[in-house]
Write a structure and sequence with these properties.
Layout: E1 3-6, H1 14-23, E2 28-30, E3 37-41, H2 45-55, E4 64-66, H3 70-76, H4 82-91, E5 96-101, H5 108-111, E6 116-120, H6 125-134, E7 138-139, H7 154-161, E8 167-170, E9 181-184, E10 191-194, H8 200-207, E11 211-212, H9 214-217, E12 238-242, E13 255-260, E14 271-275, H10 279-295, E15 300-304, H11 313-323
Parallel strand pairs: 1-8, 2-8, 4-6, 5-9, 10-11, 12-15, 13-14, 13-15
Antiparallel strand pairs: 2-3, 3-7, 4-7, 5-6, 9-10
Helix pairs in contact: 1-6
Bound molecules: threonylcarbamoyladenylate and magnesium ion.
Length: about 325
């Protein structure tokens, strides 16, 4: 049976129990500033294998190791560059994941057999306290079934993963709402593999102009890279992107219509949802909104194309994936 416990802060004694569970190979879901993670001892291959089983995750998709700081990251990489140090100094703790050449310490299952490892230091007091108490890097993908919506509160974890976690730590709703930015530092120049709360403009100050992997910009393309399938982050209801102002014809289906800044006139029976023209505010609410619409049993969710511009990159990316057709 999964236990769900409320955590009052980084000093909560329940964190010691959670750390002991992790050290003995258990699965503990915990809050971060982005989304909830499903954590295991990142140096224990059997424990990490339980994550894959719990999520129904393909073995080709590597997992992120969560560390308490740059010091711990250094042991896990073959080479810690000046660039990595500068990025960690500026953005850690925070929603930036760095992909680097892995050291021999990192189990193959964490890397999905590849030569690189993804590292992140989360900006959440409970996550940091848990990592420190465990004394290990924590392997933690988002705490949801593979290809489904990421959880932004503990109840989402419980409904997506059922009894799979041994323990769920409830630290309240997350503050960023979308998964971390993933930056690949193993190529000739830094490249964003997944847009997120840390934007290309944020990175440009340190790195100059940063390439955003085209695969994430066009979510309808089929991807070779692990974990970057077109369809991802999807609700159960059919989600379709429509031009701003398109509206919807009257229908007998249960339809929700999501607009930005202003809503067109909608037929009776269609639930209209107005989101602000502010990317960060939308990012924080997006998954919770889709979870709610799923729970309410809507058949279709029509979402207007979000505004253009870099600030909206992560929101556009996730909505694009959520609307991509299911793959065989
Ligand atoms: O905000 C986040 O990053 C959350 C919280 C829990 O930290 N975690 C998260 O993990 O979103 P996950 O597993 O749901 O997504 C991680 C993505 C996957 O698409 C995976 O393929 C990619 O990171 N990834 C992991 N290791 C990688 C590597 N070595 N090279 C390239 N991509 C990698
Ligand atoms: Mg995920």
């Amino acid at each position: 049976m999964t236990r769900l416990v409320r955590i009052e802060g980084p000093g909560d004694p329940l964190l010691l129990e959670a750390a002991a569970l992790l050290r003995s190979g258990g699965l503990v879901a915990f809050p971060t500033e982005t989304v909830y993670g499903l954590g295991a001892d990142g140096l224990n291959p059997e424990a990490v294998a339980r994550i894959y089983a719990a999520k129904g995750r393909p073995s080709t998709s590597p997992v992120i190791l969560h560390v308490a700081g740059a010091e711990a990251a250094r042991d896990l990489v073959a080479q810690w560059s000046a660039e990595a140090q500068a990025l960690a100094d500026r953005f850690w703790p925070g929603p930036l994941t760095l992909v680097l050449p892995a050291s021999d310490l990192v189990p193959a299952i964490v890397r999905a057999g590849g030569p690189t490892v993804a590292l992140r230091c989360p900006a959440h007091p409970v996550a940091l306290a848990l990592i420190r108490a465990t004394g290990r890097p924590l392997a933690a993908p988002s705490a949801n079934r593979s290809q489904h919506l990421s959880p932004t509160c503990a109840a989402h974890v419980a409904s997506s993963l059922g009894d799979a976690p041994d323990l769920i730590l409830d630290g309240g709703p997350t503050t960023e709402g979308l998964e971390s930015t993933i930056l690949d530092l193993t190529g000739p120049r830094p490249r964003i593999l997944r847009p997120g709360p840390v934007t290309p403009a944020d990175l440009a100050g340190l790195l100059g102009p940063v390439e955003v992997w085209a695969g994430t910009a066009d979510p309808t393309l089929r991807q070779q890279a692990p974990g970057m399938q077109a369809r991802h982050y999807a609700p159960r209801a059919e989600l379709r992107l429509v031009p701003p102002g398109a509206g919807v014809a009257s229908t007998s289906e249960r339809v929700a219509y999501v607009g930005f800044g202003v809503l067109p006139t909608l037929p009776e029976g269609v639930r209209g949802i107005l989101l602000p023209l502010e990317a960060e505010a939308v990012a924080v609410r997006l998954y919770a909104l889709l979870h709610d619409l799923d729970a309410a049993g809507f058949d279709r969710i029509l979402v207007e194309h979000p505004p253009a511009g870099e600030a909206w990159l992560a929101v556009r990316d996730r909505l694009g994936r959520a609307s991509a057709k299911e793959q065989p």
